[in-house]
Amino acid sequence: MVEQLAARLLRIGGIDVETRVMLPPAGGTGGRREIDILIRIRLPGGNEALYAVECKNEKKPIEAEYIDAFYGKLTYLGIPAENGIFVSRSTYRRGAVERAAAASVRLLRLTGLKDDGLTAMVLEAIQSVVYLLADIEEMTVSTSSNDGGPLFCTEDGSYAGNLMDLVHRAWAQGGIPRVLGQHEVVLAVPPHWRSRTAGEPAEVFEASAKVKVIGVVYTVVGEATTHTLTDHGTGVVQRGEIQARWDETKHRIVLASFGSSDELERHLQGLRGLIHVVARNVPMPRINVRSDWGRLYWPPSDQVLSTIVNRFDQGLPIGQPQDDFEGTVFDRVFDPVAAAYVARFH
């Protein structure tokens, strides 16, 4: 395991690394000796420099005898001792440090393995996405008729849209601040829209809404491993890597919502792991509406539109507060808008 990880770390930067290489002796006679890791550095003129790496997966500190054996191997193969690197997952005895210094052999430590030396230490890796949800709290419209309402039509009386469509368009186009908290927004009404009434369509003077932007934090707690090659003498990390894995079907998911930036930041800071990747201020594709029908996302999905149309056709109440119109289910906000529903902005 030490050899595999060390080789992987040494390859960072495109270095030519081979493992378990059999080399002939420098004198030309005698048996070949195995090098755990061989590094080839290409030099001008077609030459190359060889660096030999010895790896030990010992739980106890490395003794001087290990350095002696490695030094003997380097000499036998004709590799300069200063091109020798000794890697261990454990620390080094004083005698080993002194022997390595005398021979100019470099000592590195590999971190990130469990005590068994065979498996990596697994830590938490946290991935959070901060979604922004526009929640309509209040809508008003001023028209030339006392019975003008939230539904709009064209001059010929055909359906054009409603107040929720105007809020959604403002949200999609950035007309509502992407900042947590309550916002009062004057809505842009298309000039050809009229307020639908019992009689003639009424002129629309102004439309506005109070919208609360909520932060919904979707967090997946996954797994991470980290490994470093650290200089034993200086403590400086020479090579390092972090690998993280997130699988929403296996790992823990945390969902939380916040009305203020301070609360949201405290929540994010409380999520601790080896790494924490955060994607911020991702606007949700649909808005949330509190209606007499209950909560729903707007524009409607196929399921919600079908429910509304069927109840209307049957002369039934469109909905009751306890009915499920998706507005309390987080992932349904990403359902596509019903193809049959189109607001006529142009």
Note the topology.
Elements: H1 2-10, E1 16-23, E2 33-42, E3 48-56, H2 64-77, E4 84-88, H3 94-103, E5 106-111, E6 123-143, E7 151-153, E8 159-162, H4 163-172, E9 181-187, E10 194-195, E11 204-231, E12 237-245, E13 252-258, H5 261-270, E14 275-283, E15 287-291, E16 294-298, H6 302-313
Parallel strand pairs: 3-4, 4-5, 6-14, 6-15
Antiparallel strand pairs: 1-2, 2-3, 5-11, 6-11, 7-8, 7-10, 9-11, 11-12, 11-13, 15-16
Helix pairs in contact: 2-3
Keyword list:
alpha+beta, 16 strands, rod-shaped, 6 helices, three-stranded antiparallel β-sheet, 346 residues, Trna Endonuclease, Chain: A, domain 1
Q: Explain this structure to me?
A:
The structure is a single chain. This protein has helices at residues 2-10, 64-77, 94-103, 163-172, 261-270, 302-313, and strands spanning 16-23, 33-42, 48-56, 84-88, 106-111, 123-143, 151-153, 159-162, 181-187, 194-195, 204-231, 237-245, 252-258, 275-283, 287-291, 294-298. A hairpin with a 2-residue loop joins strand 15 (287-291) and strand 16 (294-298). Helices cover 19% and strands 40% of the residues. It is built from 6 helices and 16 strands. The chain is α+β, with helices and mostly antiparallel strands. The strands form 2 sheets. Strands 1, 2, 3, 4, 5, 6, 9, 11, 12, 13, 14, 15 and 16 form a 13-stranded mixed β-sheet that branches. It folds into 3 domains: 2-111, Trna Endonuclease, Chain: A, domain 1, CATH 3.40.1350; 125-223 and 242-284, no CATH class; 286-346, no CATH class. The mean pLDDT is 88.
